[in-house]
UniProtKB/TrEMBL annotation:
Organismal lineage: Bacteria, Bacillati, Actinomycetota, Actinomycetes, Kitasatosporales
Gene3D superfamilies according to UniProt: Metal-dependent hydrolases
UniProt region (Disordered), positions on chain: 359-385
One Pfam family named in its UniProt record: A_deaminase
Cofactor requirement: Zn(2+)
Similarity-based family: Belongs to the metallo-dependent hydrolases superfamily. Adenosine and AMP deaminases family.
Top EC category: hydrolase
Annotated protein name in UniProt: Adenosine deaminase
Gene Ontology MF, one: deaminase activity
Keyword line: Hydrolase, Metal-binding, Zinc
Domain of life: Bacteria
A GO BP entry: purine ribonucleoside monophosphate biosynthetic process
Metal-binding keyword on record: yes
C-alpha cells in the first residue's frame, strides 16, 4: 500500500504539535533494554552487582556494534543489566516502569519482546520465567491502563532446536498475551533459514513472525526474513534502503519495518541521524513503526524517535501522524481499539498546533480506564492485512 498524497497541507503554522500526545503503538522494545537507568542502579545496589563504568553514569554508553567486538561489548552490557533482574518483583517493576514511560510518550499499545531463556536460571526455569513475565505484563496493564502484549524472541546465537522449543512455548501461551515470535542478536551469524522450523511452528500457532533483519546485515537479511521466516514485521529493516527492488517489494506487501532511528546511530549502523534512511523508506512507501529498541543503552524513548523524524528528517505533523497510524495498524490489537486510536490520531492532527497543553489535558490520562475496558471487551480481530 502506498502513502496517500497530502491534499491539504496545514504545515503553515510555526507552532508544532506535542509528539508526546500523538497516539502510537510501540512495537520494538526489548525487555531489559526498556529499564530506566536509575532502576538499574538501584537493582545493582540491591544485589551487590558491580556495574561497568559505562552503565553507572545514567548516560548512554558509547557503542559501536558494526564490528564484532563492538557488538560483543553491547551484549555484555546488556547481560550485566539483565543479571540485575532476579526476582519476580524486579520483573514487575521493569514492566510497570516501561508502561509508565510509554504512556508519558503517547504510547497507547505496547508489544515488548523477551527471550525467557535468559531469565530462566534465576526464575526457576523456562516456563516459570515466562509466567512471571506474563503475570508482570497483566499487572502492569491493570495498574497503568496500557495494553501490553509479548513477543517471545529466540536468540540467533543459540541452536535452532532451542528456538523451536521457544516457539512451542510461545504458542502455548498465546491466550496469555503472547502475540508474536522474534529472532534477535547478531544477524551476521548463521542463516535465518536455520530457524525456519521454529518460525513455521510459531506461524502455524497463530503468532506473528517478527525477526530482526536489515540492521547489522544488508538487504539480503531482510529478504531472508521474508522468504525463509515468513516475517509479518521486520525488526529494523532499514538496510532495505540499499536495494530499490526490495523497497518496492516491502511497499507492496503487508510487512511493516520496526525502525529504531536512535538505536541505529547509537550502535553505529549509521554515522549520524541524517544518514538513517527514514525518508528513503517513506518515499518508497514502506510502512514503519518507530521504536526505541533499548532505551537503557541508547538513551531515548518512544516519543524521541518521532522527534528525530521531525528534527532530522523533516517529517511534517501530517507525516508524523501517518507514521503513528502505521504503528497502530501493524500492532496486533483488537479492531475496535484500532479504530478508536486512529480517530485519536486524527484528533491530534485536527487540534490547534499551538495548544499542546490542551491536547495533553484532554488526552492520555483521562482515557486510560476507558482504554483498558475497551481493550478487554474487544474480540481480537485477526489482522486481515
Ligand atoms: Zn531490537
Amino acid at each position: 500500500m502506498r502513502h496517500y498524497p497530502t491534499q491539504h497541507p496545514v504545515e503553515t503554522r510555526t507552532a508544532v504539535r506535542d509528539l508526546r500526545t500523538l497516539p502510537k503503538a510501540h512495537l520494538h522494545l526489548h525487555f531489559t533494554g526498556s529499564m530506566r537507568p536509575e532502576t538499574l542502579l538501584e537493582l545493582a545496589d540491591k544485589y551487590g552487582v558491580h556495574l561497568p563504568e559505562a552503565l553507572q553514569g545514567g548516560e548512554p554508553p558509547k557503542l559501536r556494534a558494526t564490528d564484532e567486538r563492538g557488538w560483543f561489548r553491547f551484549q555484555r552490557l546488556y547481560d550485566m543489566a539483565r543479571s540485575c533482574l532476579r526476582e519476580p518483583e524486579d520483573i514487575q517493576r521493569l514492566v510497570r516502569e516501561a508502561a509508565e514511560e510509554d504512556l508519558r510518550d503517547g504510547g497507547r499499545w505496547l508489544e515488548i519482546q523477551v527471550d525467557p531463556t535468559s531469565y530462566a536460571p534465576r526464575l526457576g526455569g523456562l516456563i516459570p520465567a515466562l509466567e512471571v513475565i506474563l503475570d508482570a505484563v497483566d499487572r502492569a496493564t491493570r495498574d497503568t491502563g496500557l495494553p501490553i502484549r509479548v513477543l517471545v524472541a529466540a536468540n540467533r546465537m543459540k541452536h535452532p532446536l532451542d528456538a523451536r522449543t521457544l516457539a512451542r512455548l510461545a504458542v502455548r501461551y498465546r491466550d496469555r498475551g503472547v502475540i508474536g515470535f522474534g529472532l534477535s542478536n547478531d544477524e551476521r551469524r548463521g542463516f535465518a533459514r536455520d530457524f525456519d522450523r521454529a518460525f513455521a511452528i510459531a506461524r502455524d500457532g497463530g503468532l506473528l513472525a517478527a525477526p530482526h533483519g536489515g540492521e547489522l546485515a544488508g538487504p539480503f537479511s531482510v529478504r531472508d526474513c521474508l522468504d525463509d521466516l515468513g516475517a509479518g514485521r521486520v525488526g529494523h529493516g532499514v538496510r532495505a534502503a540499499e536495494d530499490p527492488a526490495l523497497l518496492a517489494r516491502l511497499a507492496d506487501s503487508d510487512v511493516t519495518c520496526e525502525v529504531c532511528p536512535a538505536s541505529n546511530v547509537a550502535l553505529g549502523v549509521y554515522e549520524k541521524q541524517e544518514d538513517v534512511p527514514l525518508r528513503v523508506l517513506w518515499d518508497a512507501g514502506v510502512r514503519m513503526a518507530l521504536g526505541a529498541d533499548d532505551p537503557l543503552l541508547f538513551g531515548s524513548r518512544l516519543a524521541a524517535q518521532y522527534e528525530l523524524a521531525r528534527e532530522h528528517h523533516a517529517f511534517t505533523d501530517e507525516e508524523l501522524a501517518e507514521l503513528a497510524r502505521q504503528s497502530l495498524r501493524a500492532a496486533r490489537m483488537p479492531r475496535p481499539l484500532l479504530d478508536e486510536l486512529l480517530a485519536d490520531v486524527d484528533a491530534w492532527l485536527a487540534a490547534d498546533a499551538g495548544a499542546p497543553d490542551d491536547a495533553e489535558a484532554r488526552g492520555v490520562a483521562g482515557t486510560l480506564s476507558d482504554r483498558e475496558s475497551s481493550a478487554d471487551a474487544a474480540t481480537p480481530a485477526g489482522r486481515s492485512r
